[in-house]
Amino acid sequence: KLCEGILNILEKDTKTSCQVACLEALRILSRDKKVLVPVTTKRNMQILMRLAKLDTVEDPLARVSEFPVIVEALKCLCNIIFNSAVAQKLSLELNLAAMLCNLLEKCKDQQFVDDIKCFDLRLLFLLSLLHTDIRSQLRQELQGVQVLTHALESSLSVRWTEEYKAAEDHDSPPLSLQETDCAIEALKALFNVTLDSWNVHSETESHQFRYMAAILRHCLLTTGPTEDKTEELH
Known about the structure:
mainly alpha, Leucine-rich Repeat Variant
């Protein structure tokens, strides 16, 4: 009942501070699988997707003031999808992966979006891990390898000297914590999406995998903010 009450409030147009507080409470509650059973419905998923700006035709990143709401809604979706098989099935029906790829593309060249990008990538990782049909959809329909590779390239701030050779700067500073976390989530999602890609058929795929291999090499030469984070990245 508490979760339903929170979602009823979130369905209305309330202040940003109220939305964030409600989403934070829902995120904590959504760690409990028993609590999720009555609230994992299509309507409730759509409420969270709307708050995460996943279903909008307008620019989802137009208002910086709404970024905390987007982040908290994505965190809630991560918990719900991880803990609920029903939510995983609804994600396919609601075309969640396509919306996440679209939001990820909108994050390009935007400021203050690292948290949004990170939890978008984490949600793509969870979907590709827990639902084989979504994994196939990402690979075949949504150009998931390309989208995720670009997200990884952006997180690592790769600069190119040749087509498949990234610039090596031994004096470059370590990645920030947010950049490292984004790169790690992109790598995890890429692993899932490319899991069955041992047989490359086309010239486009060949280019994509050579391009990704160059970025992965650059990743191994990159350091994170701490020794533990560097180890996790590698």
